[in-house]
Amino acid sequence: xxxxxxxxxxxxxxxxxxxxxxxxxxxxxxxxxxxxxxxxxxxxxxxxxxxxxxxxxxxxxxxxxxxxxxxxxxxxxxxxxxxxxxxxxxxxxxxxxxxxxxxxxxxxxxxxxxxxxxxxxxxxxxxxxxxxxxxxxxxxxxxxxxxxxxxxxxxxxxxxxxxxxxxxxxxxxxxxxxxxxxxxxxxxxxxxxxxxxxxxxxxxxxxxxxxxxxxxxxxxxxxxxxxxxxxxxxxxxxxxxxxxxxxxxx
Length: 250
Description:
250 residues, alpha+beta
């Protein structure tokens, strides 16, 4: 866990020095490069777990600010960002989650990358199979969805299902989980009609790419004060992403 927190701090520190830019394609991509872009975007923009498996309860409510960071590798990011892709991408988010009957929770997420046209909407629905307690851990299932907004030349969405197990120890709650992530990217606008962009792919327009990938994650929630929690998480779904959330729970 110390390694997770150290990696998170290093990644966020590097990403904080990076300047984001619009996704506005400046050069063409091969079909293979477009698929790699879709895979990387799925790791960056999918709905992160960033919570233990225990349910909030019928009257429970959680709201917080979150940040996800990852390194950008590959010339296709330069093509997608006007030749000026930053070394790392930081995605700030606002999250809210509400407890429902039968140990279920529903959540919403909105993200907007500073100095960029990238915006993101997402939703989650989780069901605790085991609420957890002094002896037993909590076990939960979750379904998620995100959709990219603000980018004229690309439609992009993700969906995922995963399972999480967590156990509270006083003010500390570690958790781990795994699942599968579906990513779908479709080029549109000038990059599928302009001759210069078609030439980069051998004269053919870019086809829609749908990718399935396993995802693995682990994190730690610390609650140093009543109602307040700090959650750090690392996820691997093709790329390593690092997330940090500050939240209030009622």
